[in-house]
Amino acid sequence: MPPVRGFGLPSLRRNVCPHFYMTGPRGAIPIQAPHLLKGLLRQPSNISRCQLRGGVHLEEGYVNDVCLTPRFNQCVFYEDELTRT
Ligand code: SF4
Fold first, then answer.
1. How far apart are CA 31 and CA 8, in angstroms?
2. pLDDT tens per residue across span 22-73
């Protein structure tokens, strides 16, 4: 599947923590379309991870409640400093 560019609107992007990423059997999965993440999350071969917590596998419940919601900035691991450019 080719990467879909220009689809992820800024407002959608803010509903996903910028530190969140997933890895699958073939390595890191690029997050191009945040609305697809919940589907990817349900696939057991994919692992949810946090850039700030190297090696940790995030629990699906936590990801659904925090990482993939606008509340990600309340996460104790979230650091706004790293995302400012
Ligand atoms: S654990 Fe916290 S900092 Fe890491 S991806 Fe989830 S919300 Fe973001």
1. 9
2. 999 999 988 777 778 889 999 999 999 999 998 899 999 999 999 999 999 9
User: How is the chain split into domains, by residue range?
Assistant: 10-83
- Cα distances from 14 to residues 1, 2, 28, 80, 85, in angstroms, run 24, 23, 20, 12, 15
The angle subtended at Cα 79 by Cα 75 and Cα 82, nearest 5°, is 150
Tokens (6 digits) for 30: 């690029």
Task: Give ∠ CA 76-80-81 in degrees, rounded to 5.
Answer: 120
Cβ atoms of 81 and 29 within 8 Å: the answer is no
Choose which residue among 16, 41, 52, 64 to substitute to test ligand 1 binding: the one with the highest number of ligand atoms within 8 A of its C-beta. Answer: 52
